């Protein structure tokens, strides 16, 4: 963690290059080596990669307006989130 007193300059606020990962370059090298050999890590990586590759081929339909309404519709008496009804058509 960067001490608050060093946050006055951008270089101090972000001392490491992007992307920010919760790992180290040495650990990334270890993982890359591990997925090259037959192991549970290689099998897990292949499953994850196959799943991600499949997702990239699917169409993504986004609503034309904000889609996080469930954060705003709460019963004011009980505090329970309201149920969502079935979708009757595409967003317009």
Overall description:
Residues 1-8 have low confidence and may be disordered. This protein has helices at residues 10-13, 25-34, 40-57. It has a domain at 22-46. The chain has 92 residues and is mostly helical. The termini are far apart.
What percent of residues are in strands? under 5%
Largest sheet properties: none
Mass-distribution shape? elongated
Radius of gyration: 22 Å
Helices and strands, in N-to-C order? HHH
Number of helices: 3
Distance between the termini: 45 Å
User: What percent of residues adopt helix (DSSP H or I)?
Assistant: 25-40%
How is the quaternary structure best described?
A: single chain
Q: Helix- and strand-based class?
A: mainly alpha
Mean pLDDT: 75
Taking pLDDT < 50 over at least 5 consecutive residues as the criterion, the unreliable ranges are 1-8
* Count of extended strands: 0
Write the layout of secondary structure elements.
Blueprint: H1 10-13, H2 25-34, H3 40-57
Note the main attributes of this structure.
3 helices; mainly alpha; elongated; disordered N terminus; single chain; Chondroitin_lyas; 92 residues; 35% helix
The gist of it:
InterPro entries: Chondroitin_lyas (IPR008929). This protein has three helices and no strands.
């Amino acid at each position: 963690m960067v001490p608050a007193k060093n946050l006055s300059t951008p270089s101090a606020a972000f001392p490491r290059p992007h992307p920010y990962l919760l790992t180290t370059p040495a650990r990334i090298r270890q993982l890359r080596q591990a997925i090259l050999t037959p192991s549970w890590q290689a099998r897990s990586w292949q499953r994850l990669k196959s799943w991600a590759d499949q997702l990239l081929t699917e169409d993504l339909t986004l609503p034309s307006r904000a889609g996080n309404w469930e954060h705003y519709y709460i019963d004011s008496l009980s505090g329970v989130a309201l149920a969502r009804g079935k979708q009757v058509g595409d967003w317009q």
